[in-house]
Design brief:
GO terms for molecular function: kinase activity. Keywords: Kinase, Transferase. Belongs to the guanylate kinase family. Essential for recycling GMP and indirectly, cGMP. The strands form two sheets. This protein has a four-stranded parallel sheet, sandwiched between helices. A four-stranded mixed sheet has the order 3-2-5-4. The protein has one domain: P-loop containing nucleotide triphosphate hydrolases (Rossmann fold). With 181 residues, the chain is α/β, with parallel strands linked by helices. 43% of the residues lie in helices and 21% in strands. α1 packs across α8 and α5 packs antiparallel against α6.
Amino acid sequence: MNHCYLFIGPSGSGKTTLAANCFTPDQKIVSYTTRLKRNGEKDNVDYHFISNKAFEDMIQQGAFAEYDCYDHHYYGIAMSSIQEALKKGDCYDPITMSGFWNLRKKFDITVVPVLIDVSKETIHQRLKYRQASFDEINRRLDLFSEEQKQYPELEKIPDLIKINGEQPLKAMIQQLKANLL
């Protein structure tokens, strides 16, 4: 059975970096977002960067397997994208907590949660290193605190892969690779 590994963790946890180091670029599900591109990101590679209007049109058309509003921006995975990716083999995507729950309802054990467990202090330092504004850091830390409330429920899932996000990237990669199904 092919699996879709869904990387869950706060902004700055390393989920995108970890996933990119453990999978090939063609295994990534390119999801949609209305947020602006960050430095180095490419349209149709990192995300499909679209307008609010285009995103809302896709919602009306029922195009999304899941979507969410996170930090004032829409994020979503098209149903066709995840279905095509799973036909080819294992795939992955960084995702919000609610996005994971929505996909789990639709795809059951085909989607495997990968939780990057990291401290609030580490997130704060990484966001500062990313040169996030004071307001953005505070917003993201508030979102992190809210998401942490869902960790106990997530930890009940037998196929959860929990990664220690405090360790160096090389150790995180080894931990993930040792736990892939």
